[in-house]
Design a protein that fits this description.
Length: 114
């Protein structure tokens, strides 16, 4: 996805998240963690500060919550500690990108054996 597509997904998710809190019949329900589509799953991890991380994957892919928590750790280590990063702006941090790619590749190898 390009930056505009990513922003559209985030905007849509934010709206669905706000509506779901009001419509939920479950007491204490405060967030959406998984959206199951016909051809994909969209997982979300929300940090305590409200920052949301998403992963789009094949239907039924396991352990995406754990992957998203690792992505959040990478974000705190490489993005938030970067003095040139501005909050609420797209992430442009090469060290973060490199570590994110390595993490996803390791996860892919662990899950798929390739």
């Amino acid at each position: 996805m390009d930056t505009n597509d990513s922003l559209r997904v985030a905007s849509l998710w934010h709206s669905m998240h706000a509506i779901s809190q009001q419509l939920s019949l479950t007491t204490g329900c405060s967030k959406i963690e998984l959206l199951e589509g016909n051809t994909f799953d969209l997982h979300c991890f929300q940090s305590l500060t409200g920052t949301k991380f998403f992963v789009v994957c094949k239907l039924g892919t396991q352990h995406m919550e754990a992957l998203l928590k690792v992505v959040y750790e990478l974000y705190t280590d490489y993005v938030l500690k970067n003095p040139f990063y501005e909050m609420k702006m797209p992430i442009r941090c090469e060290v973060f990108d490199i570590n994110l790619t390595q993490t996803v590749q390791k996860d892919r190898v662990a899950l798929l054996g390739r």
